[in-house]
Amino acid sequence: MNDENFFSEEQRKTARYAKALGHPVRIYILQLLAKQSCCYSGDISEELPIAKSTLSQHLKELKSAGLIQGEIEPPKIRYCLNRENYQTAKKLFENLFA
Question: Widest CA span of the chain, in angstroms?
Fold first, then answer.
C-alpha cells in the first residue's frame, strides 16, 4: 500500500513536526524563539552547552520542518519562528491529544 494514499496530510504534518521536536535542544530553541521576535545563532550558542556545529544541525532540522526561518545578515544568521507553521503545529498537537 502506498503511504501517501493511506495517511492524511494532517497525520504527515504532525509526524514531521514531532520528528523535529524529538530532541530537548530543539524544544529549548523553539521556547526561546517563542519568547522573543528573533535571535542570532551566536546568541543561541551562548545559551546552550553544545558545539556550534551541533547547534547548526538542530537549527537545520527545525528549519527543514518549517518551524523556524533563518535570514542571513552577514556575518550572522537571524532565526525566528515561522509563526504560521508554529500555530499549525500547535493545533495539530492539540488535536492529537484531544
Answer: 48
C-alpha to C-alpha distance for 17 and 45, rounded to whole angstroms: 23
- Identify the three-state secondary structure at position 72: strand
Looking at CATH, the fold of the domain delimited by 3-96 is given as Arc Repressor Mutant, subunit A (1.10.10)
Task: Kindly report, residue by residue over 29-42, the tens digit of the pLDDT.
Answer: 999 999 998 999 88
Q: Pull the grid cell for residue 42.
A: 551566536
| pTM exceeds cut of 0.70 | yes
The kind and range of the H/E element at 40 are strand 39-40
d(CA 15, CA 98): 16
The C-alpha atoms of residue 28 and residue 8 are separated, in whole angstroms, by: 29
